[in-house]
Specification:
By secondary structure, the chain is an all-alpha fold. Helices cover 71% and strands 0% of the residues.
């Protein structure tokens, strides 16, 4: 993995891992670029038995996942192509059903989902991605039904949960295709079906209504379908409806008590900071976002909002962005990933 896109403070940092750091340590400490390299080395140095398919597929999944986490999904999509082509050859209708299930069944479920996503990224064909999700959904239904017939409750629950996850993934694919009406109709079918969490579906619907500008429908969904199981989700969605209407003061009023109760919640804090930014309270917004950086792991949305604020507030934005990159690099490794690309700081 070439480090050319990584911000300089990370390349020159004392926190760079030692060459003999184990793969598990690299992953747990967020050194995803180095973990991707190590997984590739383990796969290609000839130390693995060609019959150890479990370890080979595990390393392959680590390699693809770390490439994505290191902001190189283009590499991952390219490297996923051979296995995708193998699946296509070994799951076609020309092969007996039992034989197809035996071959493809060697691949862990999480890796199959990852491959499906990379297929969409690699080809840019979202419609094909939706069809592959429907194929996976059909398999979930068949496996759940077989488990029910065998009175295997745990296996039936496993495949039913996977089917619900597939349902939400289909909605996401449709949204990426800008097929918003189709996504809403699909979410309605999930609402009427048996899913582990109807609140999750309702949250997706409310956010989709906000995205297409139907604020009234979002408010109705929030009030009727989003439960009060926690004291964050509903107030946060309500604040977003105020924000969508341009009522930024009302949004601040809805989020402020939630932030007071949960000052470390990043989602609440970030949205509250953006609301303050929209009403011109730059100092307050900057203080909220800066508090999230101090000694903690950062995330892309936080960096984007901070560097955008630097561009709005000062003519020394490049200097401030460089200082931010140095500060984040000094925090050190963490589970979310440590190295950041220069583009994340708009450098």
């Amino acid at each position: 993995m070439p480090p050319r896109d990584v911000a300089a403070p990370f390349i020159n940092s004392k926190h760079q891992p030692a060459p003999d750091t184990s793969l598990n340590d690299l992953i747990s400490r967020g050194f995803f670029r180095h973990a991707a390299d190590r997984a590739a080395d383990d796969l290609t140095t000839g130390t693995l038995s060609s019959f150890d398919h479990e370890r080979i597929l595990q390393l392959y999944q680590i390699r693809l996942s770390c490439l994505i986490l290191a902001s190189r999904p283009d590499f991952a999509a390219q490297e996923a192509r051979p296995l995708l082509e193998w699946i296509a050859r070994n799951s076609g209708p020309q092969r007996p059903n039992q034989e197809r299930q035996g071959d493809v069944g060697l691949i862990p479920w999480d890796l199959r989902l990852l491959l499906q996503r990379l297929q969409t990224l690699g080809t840019g064909d979202s419609r094909r991605g939706v069809m592959s999700l429907y194929t996976l959904g059909s398999e979930c239904r068949a496996q759940a039904l077989a488990a029910q017939r065998a009175s295997d409750a745990s296996t039936s629950h496993l495949w039913t949960t996977r089917l619900a996850d597939i349902g939400l993934r289909v909605a996401s694919e449709l949204i990426e295709m800008h097929e918003y009406d189709a996504a809403l109709r699909h979410l309605d079918t999930l609402s009427s079906g048996q899913t582990p969490s109807s609140t999750s579906v309702a949250v997706h619907k409310a956010l989709l209504y906000l995205r297409i500008g139907n604020v009234s429908a979002a408010e109705n969904t929030i009030s009727s379908s989003v439960s009060n199981d926690d004291d964050i989700t509903k107030p946060l969605l309500t604040a977003l409806t105020h924000f969508a209407r341009g009522s930024y003061d009302l949004a601040i009023g809805a989020l402020t008590p939630v932030h007071a109760a949960h000052p470390q919640n990043e989602l609440v804090t970030t949205n509250l900071a953006v609301c303050h930014m929209y009403v011109g309270e730059q100092e307050t917004a900057h203080a909220l976002l800066s508090a999230l950086v101090d000694g903690r792991e950062v995330f892309p949305a936080l960096l984007f909002n901070l560097v955008t604020m630097y561009e709005l507030r000062t003519e020394r934005a490049v200097e401030r962005k460089t200082q931010l990159a140095e500060k984040v690099a000094e925090i050190g490794p963490g589970e979310r990933g440590w190295e950041r690309l220069g583009g994340e700081f708009k450098l």
